[in-house]
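hey so i finally got around to running the thing on that chain from the lab meeting. sorry it took forever, my laptop kept dying and i had to restart like 3 times. anyway pasting the input first so we r on the same page abt which one it is
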Amino acid sequence: MWDLNQGDEPIQEFCGHELVVNGLAISPDGTKLCSGSRDNWMCLWDIESAKCEQRHNISRNLVTHVCWVPGSSSIAQTSEDKTIRIWDSRTWQVTNTFPAKQYIQTHCDVSPNGHYLVSSSNGFGGQGCEATLWDLRQPGCKVVEYRGHLQTTACCVFLPTGPAGSAQVATSSHDSSIKIWDQNTAVCLGTLSLDGAGPLVSLAPSDHINLLCASFNNGLHHLQLGQGSNQAQSSGAGSGGAGGVDIKVVSRF
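ok and heres what got predicted. didnt touch it at all, straight out
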């Protein structure tokens, strides 16, 4: 852990996992850190002391991502065993396990109101490769699926809602494309292909217009979202639309 105002030296280290740490999430009150690893361990840490307060190992639970539910003691976790688990951070026990998907679940995100979870799947040749919207108020209840990527969907995030905008989800894929979806209808509102960038592994929105995308080959891309001018396509083949979204690269670093 680093303090951005105190130079390049880390101020804290959290040691205890034996394999790659794929998921990190900070509690809403900023006092706890959850980590998940390919070693099957889920750990809960005190941020100030770096003490591991809770550990739990579940066989074959190769953790791919973790996300704290806003305003809650719950943590969502995706796994290579194709399931999504909801943890209670107070007891450090699994309270719900969603029905297994057909493919590995690569990533998850929770909506700001804590009502919905979106997860993404790996896949090949358009098989799998979807993102799925779940209703956390009815654990395991699938709402819609976002289909259109041709390779593994590596990341899925809820976008901050603009002043008069509809709820939207963004996904990035190993097929080098980013897609913006209407959260509720699963219509693809816009697509941007970054040819030569390789797999697009992570997304980070800063507001309803600006989005960062990490790629294998070409570093980070700063993207901006704008109102589309062509017709939106549910197939995910196009970009923009009446009510659609145009996506453009502002800078790369």
